[in-house]
Amino acid sequence: MTDTWNSPEKFNREALQWDENPRRRALAQAVAQAIIAAVQPAKTMRALEFGCGTGLVTLEVAPLVKSVSAIDTSSEMLAVLSQKIHNAPGATIETTCLDLSQSPNFTAQHERSFELIYSSMTLHHIDDTAGFLDKISNLLSPGGLIALADLDQEDGSFHDDPLEKVHHGFDRTALAVQLQAAGLDHISFETIYTLEKVNSPGVSASYPVFLVTATRAMS
Ligand SMILES: C[S@@+](CC[C@H](N)C(=O)[O-])C[C@H]1O[C@@H](n2cnc3c(N)ncnc32)[C@H](O)[C@@H]1O
After folding, report:
1. In this structure, is residue 60 part of a structural domain?
2. Which residue CA neighbors atom 21 of ligand 1 most closely?
3. Which of 27, 28, 44, 190 is 20 to 30 A from 150 (CA-CA)?
C-alpha cells in the first residue's frame, strides 16, 4: 500500500514487468502517436519527458528530435529504459533519476532549455499541479511546447490501491486555468484514447485519456 505522493518503491517493484502489460503498451503507442501528430517533432528540438518509466513513449519520440532528457523517480524503471537505449540507434536519450517537482537545482540549471516537454500518465502522481506546471513552463524555451497525456476526472476507481495518493484525473477546464497561469497559451485538449480496465471495485469501466498541448509565450 502506498500512502505518500510519489513512491519510487512501487514503480521499482513493477519495473521489470511493466512492459508485459498490453494495456500499457497500447496506451503508450496511442500517446506517442498523438504527441507526434500534435507537436510535429523536429531534429532541432531538445525534449524532456517527466515520468518516462521504461521509455514506452520516449523510444517513439526520441528518433524524431535532437535529444531527450528522460526523467523518472524510479531507478528501476530507468534501468529498464537504459537497457533499451542500447538498441535505439539514431536516438539520443539521457536518463536522470530525480523528482522534477522537488529539484530546484535541475530547474534552475535548465531554465528555457527545452523546445518540447511531454509526459504520459504522470501528472496525476504529482501533488501540487499548479506549482509543477509553473516549474516546467520555466524549462521551456520561448515558443516551446508541452504535450501532457493523462486521465480525465474519474471517480477514484482507476487505481487499485485506495491509499495511493494520486489525483483522480483532471477536470479540463480547471487544468486549462492552471496552464494559463503558468504562462502557457494556445491550450488545446483532445481525447486520444479510452482505457478499458477492471477497476478497484472489480467492475469493467472506461477511462478517457486526454492530450493537452500548449505553448510558452515567445517573450
Ligand atoms: C503511471 S507511470 C507512467 C510511466 C510511463 N510514462 C508510461 O507511460 O509507461 C508514472 C511514472 O512517473 C514516475 N513519477 C512519479 N512521480 C514523479 C515525479 N515527481 N518526477 C518524475 N517521475 C515521477 C513514476 O516513477 C512512474 O515511472
Report:
1. yes
2. 72
3. 44
